[in-house]
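Section handout 9: paired folding examples.
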Amino acid sequence: MKFSSNKLDERSRLSGMPGFTIVWVGQVISLLGTNMTGFALTIWAYEVTGSATALALVGFFFVTPMLIISPLAGAIVDRSNRKLMMMISDLASGLATIFILILYSADQLQIWHLYITGAIMGTFQTFQWPAYSAAITTMLPKEQYGRANGLMSLSESGSNIFAPLLAGALIGVIGIAGILTIDILSFIFAIGALLLVHVPQPRQTEEGRKSRGSLWKESFYGFRYILKRPSLLGLQLIFLFGNFFFGVPATILAPMILASTNNDELAYASVTSAGAIGAVVGGLAMSAWGGPKRRVHGVLAGWIFSSLLGSVLLGVGRALPVWIIASFCGAFFGPIINGSNQAIWQAKVAPDLQGRVFSIRRLIAWLVSPLAMLVAGPLADFVFEPAMRPGGSLSNRFAWLVGQQPGAGMALLFILSGLLATAVGVIGYLVPVVRDAEIILPDHDALPADEFAAQALQSEGKRAAMPASDP
């Protein structure tokens, strides 16, 4: 008997943890190149414009398409081969980087070009994340979700350890064009890694079959799914408000450090690298530990500690050593927050629904991120910075806390945003439907597929009426 099936060839490729590890290594290399490019272009953009608002708009044009297209992307991911979706996303990002390289080499690159390429990359990244997240669910048993998500965070943050330092060192040797070339090669490496592995398609559940319909209907299925489960909705509202109060200081980190140090690129690189190291240590801890037994503690307590030891301390600090410590501490909890939350969703949502549900989940969590990016720059440039100059409206009240030097207004904005983000985590503990999310909702494999929806909803109603247990 002769076999020529592509399916047989696909199944002969690596899967499970070995396959996931190969994909993960490919993403580490790809993100190293991407973050080197991001660092180099951030320095270039600030030197050209001197504006925090211009830098904020780069992030705005990247995130906004992700939010607009998320519902459609989730439905397409659930209908398609998830490995193919990841490869197309990497390819599109590589082509956008080639476009930037051509313009830069011709001395024609302008700040608005970064807005366009950012929008293109953001559009295709919308497909990458739900496909990657759902692939973990089909490649690994749920006992390994926490560790795999820790490795995902490690791939995102680990590349940042060396990216700023490498980019800063290499700009003088190979220039921005050379760094862009490295980024393009890294995308090729990531696509090659995906070609070596097998990503199983999920088994279709009864709820998945019932949810099928037109692309428009499937695009908005994730909304209905989450709205019917208050615990999942509550978790994402934590991220909705938390991301806003985190997004404001994150947007102005570069201008705050650069303004406070007279454009010292090494100081900015040191702060971002410290954050990357903190995130790597947190990712290693999460991948080895798997997170707390009650994963909701990883989410809520993580928000509290990350905000206090990160944003607030960054604002209070007036010297590089304090900024480095704050950047490390704030980033350390990121993998624990995201890994814990991701593991909850992967355990509760059936794999054949995850593309649609996870896309809407990201949409809810990031809904206000463009707003944070839009308001952060103007707040820094036109409100807080002028107010903290000698004689400004806030300088007499807060000079003792942040000083009156350039960057002091942005430092005060860091402190205010950090305190509000801390409050979000505290409020989560006070709301039983959020605090007890893991108890309220059964795992997707704990019930027969055709009983899951009805019993989950019944469980929600009963549990919400019971007295809250201790966290």
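Moving on to protein 2 of 2.
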Amino acid sequence: MVARRIPAHISQMRRSEVVIIGAGFAGLEVAKALGRAGIATTLVDRSNHHLFQPLLYQVATAALSAVDVAEPIRKILRDYKSVRVVFGEASRVDLSRKQVELSNGQAIEFRYLVLASGATHGYFGRDEWGRWAPGLKTMEDARKIRSRLLLTFERAEQTDDPMEQERLLTIAIIGGGPTGVEMAGAIAELCRFTLARDFRSIAPEAAKIMLVEAGPRLLSGFSPEASTYARTRLERLGVSVSLGQAVDHVDARSISIAGTEMPVGLVVWAAGVSASPLARQLGETDKAGRIAVNQLLQVSGCGDVFAIGDVATFLDENQRALPGLAQVAKQQGIHLGRGLSSLILAGEPLRPFQYRSRGNTAIVGRHAAVFELGSFKIRGWSAWLSWAIIHVYLLVGFQNRLFVSLRWLWRYLTYERGARLIAGDFMDSDVGSPTGPTNEVSSLHELRVAEQREDDAPTKKLGR
């Protein structure tokens, strides 16, 4: 029998003109631009999918399924023949050898490196809180929060202890930025409009939702008027807003705010982020782990290395750091991708990056949102509609846009949420309660199949 010859590019890593670490908004845009130019590019990511993070909170609160906000990286880039996708984790950047080392021991040489590895949760030096207060950055995070959220109600339904019921039905969101505000509003609506019809021994609509912010107001990146509006709308939904007091302890069954302990059934972290640790290998970073870049998006002292998106600190013309928004990452990716293409193919020098804000928006609840662009400010239904249109447009793939639009319409008309599934791999001791009877889905594949089946229902009904 003749042994099959393995192509060299599969058996060993080859050199690329450009290596991109991270397939978020920034990394994907660089890869697309380089792919259109036919430049040999390698994109490395530890996930096989691109995740639309702005809608991840809706997966965590059972409004959307995982498949609605994710698209396979290879599918997105399959038309760009010069772009190679590597499913793996970059563990080290060796600048002297100009190569990226992967956790599996392989290495990829580069001429130019683009670090777009994003950020993860930041607990201000209290990383042990992460076990009890999950953040929301990955699909696994969303599934974990959704499972723990639904489990608290299931366990409250089974207990006869009023004090334990009250604890389980107390949910704390730490952090009053857009993510925290959106999570608080979504959880409150889930409790009051959806779960309220599903239980017999408890009243989910009476659940206590707390939003804790250490600063003086919510949505600090918005105007004071928007902050006041957000607080008013949340309180109308029954959310208890705590301002000016920091959380100083988190464990399995309680949190402490300014020294006062409060029993809770679930904690969600939305207070801070920390950039990918790869940034620290390239030079000095700030408190959030982000590395400074110049106007060309180059890392200081490394002319062939670039950092974009949440992993980088870029100062605008007013010497203020750009916020960690999807639109910032996307614009930087487009700019750098075009610039590198011109540099490599025609020797044209790179041009300074200029950020053009498309406005800031945050959803506060059902048909309520805030949108601000300079002096232009809108709130309420019109802001919510603008938010929905923008987010559907930014989703990758026409199929995703169509399904998300139909499911949002179904949810709006019926108050139903289809993806109310508890993942079996996020059970047991994670919630700080004994594990009860389970019929949960036990694998990611089964979860995706089950989610798809359940979410197909509203789509089919709307299509009749």
